[in-house]
């Protein structure tokens, strides 16, 4: 069984890709809605949450866990790998493909404050960004929008514009989505970008398909693929009904 967790509904953008490559597995997804957002919380706090969610998922029968949250990956995955004897698959901001494909020489990264200051991200940036300018911005208010199911329309566009414009002003033509909530705003991000810089082709890069492939390869190597029929259990530390509604709406 594949365990997946996030601070909220964001990890569903990763699950959506995972299901394409592993359609016949059993899943248990935990949304830590009662403690969302993680973006501004301390590393220690997030490690503690990740630990307790991992125990919960192991009790449910998970034999591999996807940390479908960039902030929790950056803060806690090293600790989880030390403490628990199973494989953890984490998120990695897709700086590399963005750097390889930019035409303007500027890559924009949208992520939470926690991700942008974490060593994990800073190391990735240092490794891949040579010769390319990286502009960063917190997607201010994005997580809250997605959590309340508002992914398009004027309110979403206004909030997206405020964080996207500084990156486009710096010349970015690739926007890396460094938070798993943000892919649900991809259409709005594309719409706002085409209005702000109609002359520029702006590509939005979501690491979820690469994470799904990595999960598949790891499970294949470890003999964990069961193909015993799809099912998903949805769990939340917040309001379970609200989470089930969000699942139905977003996927
Ligand atoms: N979805 C998360 C991430 O990928 C966390 C967002 C938050 O809770 O602030 O970073």
Structure description:
The protein is α/β, with parallel strands linked by helices. It folds into 2 domains: 2-91 and 208-250, Rossmann fold, CATH 3.40.50; 95-205, Rossmann fold. It contains 11 helices and 9 strands. Strand 3, helix 3 (70-83) and strand 4 (87-89) form a beta-alpha-beta unit. Helix 2 (43-60) packs across helix 3 and helix 8 packs across helix 9 (186-196). The longest helix has 18 residues, at 43-60. Bound molecules: D-glutamic acid. The site of D-glutamic acid has 16 residues, from helix 3.
- Which shape, going by the Cα principal axes? globular
Distance between the termini: 20 Å
Give the topology string: H per helix, E per strand.
Answer: EHEHEHEHEHHEHHEHEHEH
The strand order across the widest sheet is 4-3-1-2-9
Strand percent estimate: 15-25%
Return the CATH architecture of the largest domain: 3-Layer(aba) Sandwich
Whole-angstrom Rg: 17 Å
Question: How many domains make up the 3D coordinates?
Answer: 2
Short summary:
This protein has 251 residues and is of the alpha/beta class. The protein has helices at residues 12-21, 43-60, 70-83, 95-101, 113-117, 119-128, 142-147, 154-169, 186-196, 208-222, 240-250; strands at residues 2-6, 26-31, 64-67, 87-89, 106-111, 133-138, 174-177, 203-205, 231-236.
Topology at a glance:
Blueprint: E1 2-6, H1 12-21, E2 26-31, H2 43-60, E3 64-67, H3 70-83, E4 87-89, H4 95-101, E5 106-111, H5 113-117, H6 119-128, E6 133-138, H7 142-147, H8 154-169, E7 174-177, H9 186-196, E8 203-205, H10 208-222, E9 231-236, H11 240-250
Parallel strand pairs: 1-2, 1-3, 2-9, 3-4, 5-6, 5-7, 7-8
Helix pairs in contact: 1-10, 2-3, 8-9
This protein binds D-glutamic acid.
Residues 6-7, 10, 36-39, 69-71, 112, 115, 143, 179-181 line the site of D-glutamic acid (DGL).
């Amino acid at each position: 069984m594949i365990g997946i967790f996030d601070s909220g509904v964001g990890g569903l953008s990763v699950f959506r890709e995972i299901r394409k490559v592993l359609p016949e597995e059993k899943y248990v997804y935990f949304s830590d809605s009662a403690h969302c957002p993680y973006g501004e919380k301390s590393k220690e706090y997030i490690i503690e949450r990740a630990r307790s969610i991992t125990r919960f998922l192991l009790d449910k029968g998970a034999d591999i866990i996807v940390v479908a949250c960039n902030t929790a990956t950056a803060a806690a995955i090293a600790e989880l790998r030390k403490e628990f004897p199973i494989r953890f698959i984490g998120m990695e901001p897709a700086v590399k493909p963005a750097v390889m494909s930019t035409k303007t020489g500027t890559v924009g990264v949208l992520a939470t404050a926690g991700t942008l200051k974490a060593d994990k991200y800073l190391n990735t940036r240092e490794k891949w960004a040579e010769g390319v300018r990286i502009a960063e911005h917190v997607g201010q208010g994005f997580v809250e929008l997605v959590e309340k199911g508002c992914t398009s329309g004027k309110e979403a566009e206004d909030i997206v514009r405020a964080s996207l414009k500084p990156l486009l002003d710096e010349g970015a033509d690739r926007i890396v989505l460094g938070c798993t909530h943000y892919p649900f705003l991809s259409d709005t991000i594309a719409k706002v970008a085409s209005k702000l810089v109609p002359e520029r082709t702006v590509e939005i890069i979501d690491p979820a398909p690469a994470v799904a492939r990595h999960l598949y390869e790891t499970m294949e190597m470890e003999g964990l693929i069961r193909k015993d029929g799809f099912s998903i259990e949805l769990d939340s530390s917040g309001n379970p009904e609200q989470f089930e509604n969000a699942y139905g709406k977003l996927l």
